[in-house]
Write a structure and sequence with these properties.
Sulfate adenylyltransferase; about 35% strand; about 25% helix; about 130 residues; six-stranded mixed beta sheet; alpha+beta
């Protein structure tokens, strides 16, 4: 298995009923916002997991400890510059677009700007740990 394949496989669990659970990681303070219900969407670049509506998601802290399970309820792929206020609902807000680009550039260790494609994943919590 390639190194990339190994990484992807390590981030997907398989249940006994063959339903794949896809793992997403969140740094503090995001887990608390998710558990409180104030964060109901996540934005991802380069989705190697192929997350789609209806998928079951395992939410983990950066130390790999699972804190919740969720179902992806809606998926939208769009450039940052095309995002509307509706697209941004349920996600933490930024003071400016520049702050948003800098934040995602830091998260992904790559240049992020208005034309960068982002996957918006809306979700509903199923279980908290």
């Amino acid at each position: 298995m390639t190194r990339r394949g190994s990484f992807i496989a390590s981030h997907i669990k398989v249940l006994h009923n063959n339903k794949k659970i896809k793992r997403l990681h969140f740094a503090d303070p995001l887990p608390e916002r998710i558990l409180a219900g104030t964060k109901t969407a996540t934005w991802r670049l380069n989705d190697e997991k192929g997350i789609g509506a209806g998928d079951i998601l395992s939410f983990c802290r950066t130390d790999e400890k699972e804190f919740a399970r969720a179902r992806a309820t809606a998926i939208k792929e769009i450039a940052f510059k095309e995002m509307t206020a509706e697209d941004k609902k349920g996600h933490e807000s930024y003071y400016s677009d520049d702050e948003m680009y800098r934040t995602f550039s830091r998260y992904y260790a790559t240049e992020v700007g208005p034309g960068t494609q982002v996957k918006i994943i809306a979700f509903e919590l199923l279980k908290q740990y």
